[in-house]
């Protein structure tokens, strides 16, 4: 089985970081398409099968725009940093019709910093309240998955959130503003012919947390019948 990604992916991202300007990128646009964008779209298309086995309610969308692949272009409208391009490659596998902040899977490629993740990053207060309420209401279920949490907990409340008992078993989790888990990959792993299986395995490891968070938000994660869910 051929590799989806090669060392040229990381070489391009390194050079883009050194030359983050429109003129350089336009001169190397064909290289970006050949070494970065098109391999990523092929990977996304082929991941639809393994993803369906994990959750038929998550989408692996290989469209070149508005699909699973993030744009390379940065939104600089409200940023002091006006560099026009991202220097990493990212993909999302979210619930149909939901943005990246739904509790699906995320894949990030950056030289020396590749990882997969699942969870909720900077959720809005109403979303966070629903998750905290679910943790308390379904404590036995949360007890089985909270050990997967491994994101940096620096972004957390100093006190228990209002309305939640300060002596609750999971008060440390209730203080969190971000809840998620991640699995790191080396650059050679990403370039391996086995990376599809490696990534799918990471998603299966993270799936119990994604399933709990999905349920807390009223989103389906597993199909009881095993049939492909309706698009409606």
Report what the structure shows.
The structure is a single chain. The chain contains eight helices and four strands, in the order H-H-H-E-E-E-H-H-H-E-H-H. The chain is an alpha+beta fold and 232 residues long. It has a domain at 7-120 and 180-208. The protein has a four-stranded antiparallel sheet. A hairpin with a 4-residue loop joins strand 2 and strand 3 (114-120). Helix 3 (29-54) crosses helix 8.
What does this entry show, briefly?
This protein is of the alpha+beta class. The protein has eight helices and four strands; from the N terminus they run αααβββαααβαα. The protein has a four-stranded antiparallel beta sheet.
Question: What key phrases describe this protein's structure?
Answer:
four-stranded antiparallel sheet; alpha+beta; disordered C terminus; globular; 232 residues
């Amino acid at each position: 089985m051929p590799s989806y990604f090669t060392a040229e992916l990381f070489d391009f991202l390194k050079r883009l970081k050194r030359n983050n300007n429109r003129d350089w990128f336009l001169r190397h646009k064909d290289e970006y398409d050949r070494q970065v964008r098109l391999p990523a779209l092929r990977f996304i298309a082929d991941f639809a099968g393994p993803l369906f086995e994990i959750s038929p309610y998550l989408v692996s969308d290989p469209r070149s725009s508005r699909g699973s692949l993030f744009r390379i272009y940065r939104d600089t409208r409200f940023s002091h940093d006006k560099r026009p391009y991202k220097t990493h490659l990212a993909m999302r596998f979210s619930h149909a019709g939901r943005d990246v902040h739904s509790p699906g899977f995320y894949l990030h490629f950056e030289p020396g910093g590749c990882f997969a993740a699942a969870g909720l990053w900077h959720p809005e207060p109403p979303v966070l309240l629903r998750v905290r309420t679910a943790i308390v209401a379904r404590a036995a279920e949360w007890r089985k998955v909270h050990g997967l949490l491994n994101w940096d907990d620096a972004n957390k409340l100093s006190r228990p959130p209002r309305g939640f008992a300060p002596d609750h078993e999971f008060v440390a989790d209730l203080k969190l503003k971000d809840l998620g888990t991640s699995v790191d990959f080396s650059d050679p792993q990403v370039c391996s012919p086995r990376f599809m299986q490696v990534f799918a395995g990471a998603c299966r490891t993270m799936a119990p947390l994604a399933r709990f968070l999905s349920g807390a938000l009223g989103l389906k994660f597993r199909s009881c019948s095993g049939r492909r869910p309706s698009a409606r």
